[in-house]
Task: structure prediction
Amino acid sequence: MNLLIIDPDQGIQEYYRNTLESTFPGIAVEFAADVARAEDRLHSNDFDLIITETVLDRPFFAFLDGLVRTGAPVVVVSRDDSERLAVESIRFGAIDFISKKNLKLGIFTSVLARALLDGERWGKIRQYAASHPPYAEVRKHTDTILASIEKEKEERVRLEAAQKLGGGLKNLKEGQVYRILFLYATIKFQESTFNQMDDWQLQQILTRWKRILSRIPESYGGQIWIEKKDSLVAAFSEDDVLPAILASMEMNARTYLLSGELPIERAGLSIALASGQTVYTSDMGSLVSEALNFSAHLAYRESAFNGICLPDSVFDRLNGRTRKYFFREDAAFEGKPVYRFERIA
Result:
């Protein structure tokens, strides 16, 4: 039975030799004072057990990883007895970890005996683990994380592209009049949801959802101008209606998915679009805009629980393909014809 001890402390060699030879008759012990000598011996001999110190002339964990890969069981015996070192040593594949302070407590020979008896079994376990894919649950969790990272990357790229296109809302001057397309979105819950959750719980949900939903208009070149308890107001340049329509549809779909995560009735997202002249002010609460007021009234209607509504002035600017998704409501609202898109689950 061959054993290799890697330790620069020459004074401990006699203790190791006497202890091992008296406990394990017929054992052959070799010593290496540094990594280079250890590597020479490992290349020329097969060892049944390896004991190594952690304080060596090279980074320890990289060296330990190489020792474990030889297939022989490895026991770490260290003058450093920190908990982190012990945990990391086991994580890198060592059979056991012993502090030199505890060598004379009688556990040293017991640990070595177990390592010699169980070394082959542990080696096969490691070999099996390395040659098989991870558990399905772990792989599924990893795939979810990677997909989330990829999604965030895509949203970042789209946001950067949208910011280049969103020049129409840059450098707005205080008190000047601009033509703005407003997207007014308000989250609505069923009465049963209010009965299931208290105000604090609902506010936590609203805060999280608004944070997620607010990224969507920005990714299409819009800007979030106003945020209320249950609502968001995004501003788009009136030059092109399509980005606001696409942002509205994505926000509507995202709300449907978010509400499916909770033990509540499906929430609704009432979105209204309206455009017109706006007197710009950095104090968004003081904006002077008939279009903003109209979009708020349209979104907060009792009959508008879920969907996207817009007046005829916005509908007329849609292309033929987009118009197919909107249907005219029977009654006008505040004297204006209204068109509606509502996703049917």
User: Anything to note?
Assistant: The mean pLDDT is 84. The domain at 166-341 is CATH 3.30.70.1230 (Alpha-Beta Plaits). DSSP finds twelve helices and 13 strands in the chain. The chain has two domains: 2-131, 166-341.
